[in-house]
TrEMBL record:
Gene: Dcaf17
Organism: Rhinopomastus cyanomelas
Any GO BP annotation: protein ubiquitination
Pfam families: DCAF17
Record's GO cellular component terms: Cul4-RING E3 ubiquitin ligase complex
Protein name (database record): DCA17 factor
Lineage of the species this protein comes from: Eukaryota, Metazoa, Chordata, Craniata, Vertebrata
Membrane-traversing stretches: none
């Protein structure tokens, strides 16, 4: 007989234990156990990551959840198989069909959907001619088509307001002609936004960000988690309630496929040539929820209780971060964070994506994971405390100002190495793998033209180094790099000058053969886990 779980004392305790997966019949318990087992296997010394596939392209390479996209999303390659294989290959598209942006859409858990195709992963793409297409992620066939607009507005960007629920399509910024700037046309449109609910794909509304309503120095807008974020050239950031704006200024709701007679136009919503109606018209400035001034509009909200991070809006404060309470703008105790590093590339800071409320501050040779906690004897104030740090390996680095040659001559250096000098190990990428609960870092050392990088996995709770994976390809610090760590897969995308792109795929293998020996290909390695959590191979 299996072990019985102790009875919960009350409803709150029962719900809390259920949420943490204490009951074997709950959905997801087996999946969590398998991920825990995968993490143990991956961190074993005998587990290696091998470069199984490499490709080069003259167009950008994208990666989404086990799929590699080439040739402007015309070719899709699965990276899950032992060796990447082509899922679909389309004919080369014309310039008028070029894809500007894409989002991967996955079926939400629970709920009935109108079409069987809605339960499978799909790719939402935006074309240069203002078409929104929903494609099958595995076959590439078109599942749905929506025409956005035939006006001069050019939609360019896709993003999530609420991930896999509410999608926002943003236009490129409308650059005013010189004549309009001279006469200061107040009614000019700066940006256009179209908002959709997904699965099933349905139209919510389209609106314009106008100079008359939001001011003449708007440089960018975004929508995230129900908040309209407006950024200004002088570093000002303002937040508005986007849901309230939608409800207050909605003139008439429409759905895709509806026939409409709108401002003298008769057509079908989402069909060519009419597209979508402008059914949300902001006629008055909405109330500002919050505003802050920050260098380069850098502004983040997170933590518990809610805090925000800004850089004072002066160039001399570049690299200085203030962590303040969202409730009353009070600076947290120890809330001024500064690495005081001398480097070409600035340090960066952000709220930890694991929803723990912690903060990650990354410098050239140091990663600090910070946490918010109450000040002792003052529950109204929060302070920033260090949770743990990760330090680059610079044991062999010699940076003495004075050296003595073999002949005894004293040589003084006229300059000091930068903290991110390529010859010293420097952190370039920090990421979080949520399913395995691992913090990953990429550190690079470049000597001459040859740069070497390694991907390290750290315990997300304490920062302990669990695994280090060397990347075999040379790493040039002057190129643009992306590294994805997805369960048992590591993928490195590199952009070289003259639009040359390379993709290197590494997969996890459990190899017990000693270095220099070839393992028997007919040998089957088996892995099992005991109740005590120990992992064995044979």
């Amino acid at each position: 007989a299996g072990c019985r779980q102790p009875a919960a004392r009350n409803v709150c305790s029962l719900l809390a234990r259920r949420a943490r997966g204490f009951y074997a019949k709950d959905a997801g318990v087996a999946y969590r156990k398998n991920l825990g087992l995968l993490r143990r296997i991956m961190c074993q010394e005998s587990t290696k990551f091998r470069n199984v596939w490499t490709t080069h392209s003259a167009s950008p390479i994208a990666y989404e959840r086990g799929r590699i996209y080439l040739d402007n999303y015309q070719c899709c390659i699965s990276s899950i198989a032992q060796e990447p294989r082509i899922l679909y290959q389309k004919a080369k598209c014309s310039k008028s069909e070029k894809i500007e942006d894409a989002l991967l859409l996955e079926c939400p858990l629970g709920g009935m959907l109108p079409s069987p195709s809605d339960y499978k992963s799909s790719l939402i793409v935006l074309t240069v001619r203002n078409w929104l297409l929903r494609l099958s992620a595995d076959g590439g066939e078109i599942l749905q088509k929506v025409y956005l607009t035939s006006s001069s507005c050019k939609f360019r960007y896709l993003s999530w307001d609420t991930p896999h629920e509410i999608m926002v399509i943003k236009s490129a910024q409308n650059k005013l002609p010189a004549a309009a700037r001279e006469v200061s046309v107040e009614d000019s449109v700066l940006f256009s936004l179209a908002v959709f609910q997904v699965l099933p794909l349905s139209f919510i509304g389209m609106l314009e960000i106008k100079k008359k309503i939001f001011g003449n120095s708007v440089t960018d807008v975004a929508v995230s988690h129900g908040i309209l974020i407006v950024m200004y050239s002088m570093g000002l950031v303002r937040l508005y309630n986007f849901q309230a704006i939608t409800e207050e200024f909605m003139e008439q709701p429409f759905d895709l496929g509806d026939e409409f007679n709108w401002n003298g136009q008769v057509g079908v919503v989402g069909k060519y040539p009419f597209g979508l109606p402008l059914n949300i018209k902001i006629t008055d400035t909405p109330p500002v929820l919050f505003e802050a001034s920050s260098l380069a509009n850098a502004f983040q909200i997170g933590g518990y209780p809610w805090h925000y991070i800004i850089t004072p809006n002066k160039k001399k404060h570049n690299g200085v971060f203030h962590i303040c309470s969202l409730k009353d703008n009070a600076l947290a105790k120890n809330g001024i964070q500064e690495m005081k590093c001398c480097s070409l590339e600035p340090d960066w800071i952000y709220f930890h994506p694991d929803m723990s409320g912690r903060i990650i501050h990354v410098g050239p040779n140091l990663i600090k994971v910070l946490k918010l906690k109450e000040v002792k004897n003052n529950t109204e104030q929060m302070e920033i405390a260090e949770d743990f740090t990760i330090v680059a390996n610079r044991e062999n680095c010699v940076n003495d100002a004075v050296t003595v040659t073999a002949s005894g001559r004293v040589v003084k250096k006229r300059f000091k190495l930068l903290d991110d000098d390529p010859e010293q190990e420097t952190f370039k990428i920090v990421d979080y793998e949520d399913e395995l609960d691992l913090l990953s870092t990429v550190a690079v050392t470049q000597i001459g033209a040859d740069g070497r990088a390694h991907l390290d996995f750290h315990c997300n709770d304490h920062g302990i180094l669990l695994k280090s994976i060397p990347l075999l390809e040379s790493w040039d610090v002057t190129y643009s790099h992306e590294v994805y760590f997805d369960k048992d897969l590591v993928l490195h995308i590199e952009q070289k000058p003259n639009r040359r792109f390379s993709c290197y795929v590494y997969q996890m293998v459990c190899d017990t053969a000693k270095d220099g020996e070839c393992s028997n290909p007919e040998k089957t390695e088996r892995v099992f886990c005991t109740k005590g959590g120990r992992v064995f191979e044979y």
